[in-house]
C-alpha cells in the first residue's frame, strides 16, 4: 500500500506533503525525500514517522560506506553510539535502512524543496536516493544520468530480494529478460548503484 498527499502551504518550500508505505519485517531501503518545514535538513522524527516498535532500527548510509545506527524507544530515536536522543540532521537525499520487527506503516513527511535534485557518486557500490517525492522512471527524461558505462548495475529491493538492471548504450535494461525497462523507483525508496569505471552522477527533475 502506498499513499501520497502533497498539500500547499505557506512555507519556504511552497509545498508540504507525505508519502506512506508499509514495510516488510526486516530490512527495507528508504530515502529522505522531504526537508524540514523550514526547508532545511531535519531530525529523523521530523521527516520519518510510523508505528514503530521498541528497538526497531534506522541505519543511515554514509559516504564512507559505513552506517550510523539509531534505535527506537518510547517514541524517540536514540544513537546506537551515545545512547542519547538523536539530534542529527538529515538532508534530502539521505539513504537509509529501516529494520522493523513486523510489517510497519511508515510515513515520510515534510516540505518539498524547489528545483532539481543532484547526486555525485563514486566508484563501486553506493546506496542512493533520488531526492524528490515522486516515482522515478529509470529511463526517460525524469533523470539525466552522467558517467555511467555499459554493465553498470542498479538494484531495487523488493521485500527480501532485489530486482537488477544493467546499463547499456544510454538506457537501463531488465536483468532477467534484457528488455529496455519501463520500471520506476518507488517514492521514498533508495537503491543500490554499482559503477565500474567512473564516478556516476545524475540529476532528477523536481516537482516545481
Which features does this protein show?
single chain, 208 residues, 5-stranded antiparallel beta sheet, 19 strands, 2% helix
Describe the protein's topology.
Layout: E1 2-8, E2 15-22, E3 26-31, H1 44-47, E4 48-50, E5 57-61, E6 67-73, E7 76-79, E8 95-100, E9 105-112, E10 117-120, E11 124-129, E12 136-137, E13 143-146, E14 153-158, E15 161-168, E16 171-174, E17 184-185, E18 190-195, E19 201-204
Quick take:
With 208 residues, the protein is mainly beta. It has one helix at residues 44-47; strands at residues 2-8, 15-22, 26-31, 48-50, 57-61, 67-73, 76-79, 95-100, 105-112, 117-120, 124-129, 136-137, 143-146, 153-158, 161-168, 171-174, 184-185, 190-195, 201-204.
Overview of the structural elements:
- This protein is mostly beta strands and 208 residues long.
- It contains 1 helix and 19 strands.
- It has one helix at residues 44-47, and strands at residues 2-8, 15-22, 26-31, 48-50, 57-61, 67-73, 76-79, 95-100, 105-112, 117-120, 124-129, 136-137, 143-146, 153-158, 161-168, 171-174, 184-185, 190-195, 201-204.
- The strands form 5 sheets. A 5-stranded antiparallel beta sheet has the order 3-8-5-6-7, with no helix packed on it.
- Strand 14 (153-158) and strand 15 form a beta hairpin.
- It starts with a strand and ends with a strand.
Amino acid at each position: 500500500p502506498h499513499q501520497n498527499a502533497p498539500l500547499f502551504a505557506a512555507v519556504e518550500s511552497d509545498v508540504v506533503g507525505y508519502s506512506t508505505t508499509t514495510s516488510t519485517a526486516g530490512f527495507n531501503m528508504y530515502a529522505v525525500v522531504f526537508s524540514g518545514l523550514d526547508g532545511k535538513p531535519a531530525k529523523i522524527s521530523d521527516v520519518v514517522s510510523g508505528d514503530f516498535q521498541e528497538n526497531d532500527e534506522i541505519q543511515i548510509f554514509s559516504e564512507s560506506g559505513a552506517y550510523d545506527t539509531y534505535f527506537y524507544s518510547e517514541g524517540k530515536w536514540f544513537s546506537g553510539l551515545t545512547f542519547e536522543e538523536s539530534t542529527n540532521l538529515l538532508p534530502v537525499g539521505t539513504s537509509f535502512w529501516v529494520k522493523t520487527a513486523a510489517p510497519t506503516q511508515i510515513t515520510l513527511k515534510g516540505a518539498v524543496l524547489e528545483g532539481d535534485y543532484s547526486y555525485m557518486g563514486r566508484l563501486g557500490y553506493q546506496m542512493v536516493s533520488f531526492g524528490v517525492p515522486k516515482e522515478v522512471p529509470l529511463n526517460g527524461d525524469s533523470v539525466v544520468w552522467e558517467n555511467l558505462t555499459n554493465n553498470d548495475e542498479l538494484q531495487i529491493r523488493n521485500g527480501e530480494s532485489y530486482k537488477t538492471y544493467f546499463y547499456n548504450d544510454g538506457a537501463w535494461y531488465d536483468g532477467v529478460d534484457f528488455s529496455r525497462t519501463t520500471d520506476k523507483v518507488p517514492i521514498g525508496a533508495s537503491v543500490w548503484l554499482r559503477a565500474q569505471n567512473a564516478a556516476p552522477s545524475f540529476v532528477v527533475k523536481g516537482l516545481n
